[in-house]
Amino acid sequence: MPDTPQTPLLDQVHIPADLKRFSDAQLHQIADELRAETVSAVSVTGGHLGAGLGVVELTVALHAVFDTPRDKLIWDVGHQCYPHKILTGRRERIRTLRTKGGLSGFTKRSESPYDPFGAAHSSTSISAALGFAVARDLGGNIESGLGDAIAVIGDGSMSAGMAFEAMNNAGHLKKRLFVILNDNEMSIAPPVGALSSYLSRLYAEEPFQDLKAAAKGAVSLLPGPFREGAKRAKDMLKGMAVGGTLFEELGFSYIGPIDGHDLNQLLPVLRTVKARATGPILIHVITKKGKGYAPAEQARDRGHATAKFDVVTGKQKKTPSNAPSYTRVFADALLDQAARDDKIVAVTAAMPDGTGLNLFAERYPSRCFDVGIAEQHGVTFSAALAAGGMKPFCAIYSTFLQRGYDQVVHDVAIQRLPVRFAIDRAGLVGADGATHAGAFDVAFMANLPGMVVMAAADEAELVHMVATAAAHDDGPIAFRFPRGEGAGVTMPERGEPLEIGKGRMIQQGKRVAILSFGTRLSEVIKAAEALSARGITPTVADARFAKPLDRDLILGLAADHEALITIEEGAIGGFGSHVAQLLAEEGVFDTGLKYRSMVLPDTFIDQASPEDMYTTAGMNAADIETKVLDVLNIAHIGEKRA
Ligand SMILES: Cc1ncc(C[n+]2csc(CCOP(=O)(O)OP(=O)(O)O)c2C)c(N)n1
Ligand SMILES: CC(=O)[C@@H](O)[C@H](O)COP(=O)(O)O
Ligand SMILES: [Mg+2]
User: Fold this and answer.
1) Counting CB atoms within 10 angstroms of each CB, which of 93, 176, 365, 553 has the fewest?
2) Which residues of the chain, if any, have pLDDT below 70?
3) Cβ atoms within 10 A of the Cβ of 591, count?
4) Considering its fold, how many domains does the chain have in total?
5) Cβ–Cβ under 8 Å, residues 422 and 332
6) Which part of the chain is the Transketolase-like pyrimidine-binding domain (predicted)?
7) Is residue 150 in contact with ligand 2, taking CB distance under 6 Å?
């Protein structure tokens, strides 16, 4: 594939309506050009590549047949939407994907009227499409108009409970609605579970589409070529009982499987359903993740996500790392614990590589469970594993754990079951932006009675926290750690369980104490060094625990200092709120203590590098220094930021 693609037809497409001027044969060429443009753009920005390449033809066909933005096209997750962005007026900015001030890597309402519903977490598209269909039928009125509603959902995302909740509701409401099931036999990792096997069976039987259509009398819904095949199949079917697909049982008409890379199939099918559908229809398309770009097709994850790369060789341009990633440190520490305790089991919700549990699965296949994109189930499953005498480590990104929150409360915390939550991607994550920020877990975990909540200040601490969690049998426990590489500290040979609810002193100083929870500690230390150079040496401590709080440490710091500042990589309502509550309850504020809490601001921060995002959040060393000077009333305005 060339580095700078020639795109003579694509150059004439500024909005999707332009596609309607081209013949079907020309649409084939546009699809080829769109694929090349997508590869070229992602080579510059990095990002989600494979999923977009797999839906190039589908994107062209949907936009050529339907009338967006009046028709609402809703991409599940949204990680496959780069070709859609190119066709919907954002081509000029496509090489800003996932960068500060640039295009989001997902669909986003504020970005374009062609993104009617934002996403980034999976399995929401059918609910959203149904909502638009119902709003349309009830006379809803929005600027872009309300036409058809089309959800495009992948086979991995289809496995989540939410998708089936929506199918159940849609089948009942019988609204005209289109669900395109984009089946590429991949999630981020190979998909798991019975639904995945079911889908494979659906298309393993070649004449299936004909047989099914004939059996259900849906022949008239199919375009010419299929109709003939179906009639032939009907003859073959005489006397043969064919059961409905799962989707038909849920009230959908089922069409497929069809080849999602063949516009000669996609265009007539979409045109037919657009002209004739009255109720909910599921169109099952078969595609290849990474289609058309060999390095993606051949990658283990089919090019799911990539760093910047060289288009010709496919070689990724990764910056060399100085320390192991937190994820890797967690994975190794867990393996170490698991080697000594055969009750330890691990649970991931479709993120084996992202959580590092792929290593656990390799070593202990029968003790590792990928439950698919099913965080709610994963949490309750872990709760029952704990109830059954196992020691589950439930490894879920902070942002995705939000989806399993009632299960955390109802199934884990209320029953005081010792589930160990390994919360990866805590804090601001960078290019994935606000949807993936691990901002809320401290707030939503630490308010639960009986939940222990820890944050690792560095990778050595993480090893100890894994050991602490393994040893903790008296109720649930959670530890959080960020995306990316560790601080490069000396690693302990082995993790040692920490005393629950005890922090540690880092340096003793005067006047002001900074109490850090999590990996901002390195910024705190930088700030402390800068302040020392000014003659103010702060006390620095690492809280380790947000729940239970180290009361002695906190009350001691409050008693011995004029001011106390807490800092954490989380939103309002987290560690700092618990500290404030303690100080208030103990009457410490009455004694005149100056208290400040540094938390993420009460806004959603758009994508940028994590460093830039923390600058926006006002949580880097310079901000901490400023906070200290402010609280001590030391004049500095203009001086530091000039
Ligand atoms: C609730 C939730 N859990 C996990 C993820 C992480 N994730 C993003 S894409 C993806 C795989 C989706 O697979 P599929 O829907 O088949 O799309 P494909 O990438 O194959 O096109 C996963 C697990 C997510 N975005 N949302
Ligand atoms: C789309 C999605 O949700 C994932 O692919 C996510 O982008 C992975 O993030 P990490 O790169 O932090 O694993
Ligand atoms: Mg898939």
Assistant:
1) 365
2) 203-244, 637-642
3) 10
4) 3
5) no
6) 324-489
7) no
Task: Look up residue 434 and give its DSSP letter.
Answer: G
Round to whole Å and give the CA distance between 78 and 486: 30
Answer whether residue 63 is part of any domain: yes
Same domain as 170, residue 228: yes
Do 266 and 61 meet the contact criterion of CB atoms below 8 Å apart? yes
Q: Supply the pLDDT for residue 496.
A: 98
- For residue 395, give both structure tokens: 């490894």
- State the residue for tokens 């099952």: 284
Phi, psi at 234, each rounded to 5° = -60, -40
Domain that holds residue 346: 326-480
Residue 614 CB contacts under 8 Å (≥ 6 apart), including other chains: 428, 523, 620
Q: Is 494 a domain residue?
A: no
The alpha carbon of 151 is separated from its chain's Cα centroid by a whole number of angstroms, namely: 18
How far is ligand 3, taken at its centre, from the CA of residue 203, in Å?
A: 15
Pocket test of ligand 1: the residue of 76, 77, 127, 285 to mutate, having most ligand atoms within 8 Å of its CB, is 77
So what's the pLDDT on residue 238? 40
* CATH code, domain with 339: 3.40.50.970
- Give SS3 for 612: helix
| Residue 529 a catalytic site member | no
CA distances from 310 to 228, 303, 306 (A): 47, 13, 11
Q: Exposure of 504 by Cβ count < 10 A (0-12 exposed, 13-18 middle, 19+ buried)?
A: middle
Q: Which residues are bridge partners to 344 per DSSP? A: 391
Test site for ligand 2: of 373, 432, 609, 613, most ligand atoms within 8 A of the Cβ: 432
Domain identity same for 382 and 509 = no
Q: Is 156 annotated as a binding residue?
A: yes
Whether 403 is catalytic is yes
Closest ligand relative to 152 C-alpha: 1
Q: Do 187 and 372 touch, CB atoms closer than 8 A?
A: yes
pLDDT in tens, 61-88: 999 999 999 999 999 999 999 999 999 9
CA gap 348, 358 in Å, rounded: 9
Is residue 63 part of an annotated ligand binding site? no
Give just the sign of the alpha carbon dihedral 440, 442, 443, 448.
positive
Q: Which atom of ligand 1 is nearest to the CA of 351?
A: 23
Pocket residues: Cβ below 6 A from ligand 1: 51, 54, 77, 79-80, 121-122, 154-157, 184, 186-188, 289, 350, 373, 375, 400, 403
620 closest CA partner among 594, 604, 641, 606: 641
In this prediction the pTM is 0.94
Ligand-binding site membership of 638 (annotated): no
Give distance in angstroms: CA of 187 to centre of ligand 3: 4
Report the C-alpha gap between 157 and 77 in whole angstroms.
8
The DSSP secondary-structure symbol of 316 reads: B
Given the DSSP bridges, would you call strands 420-424 and 391-397 parallel, antiparallel or unpaired? parallel
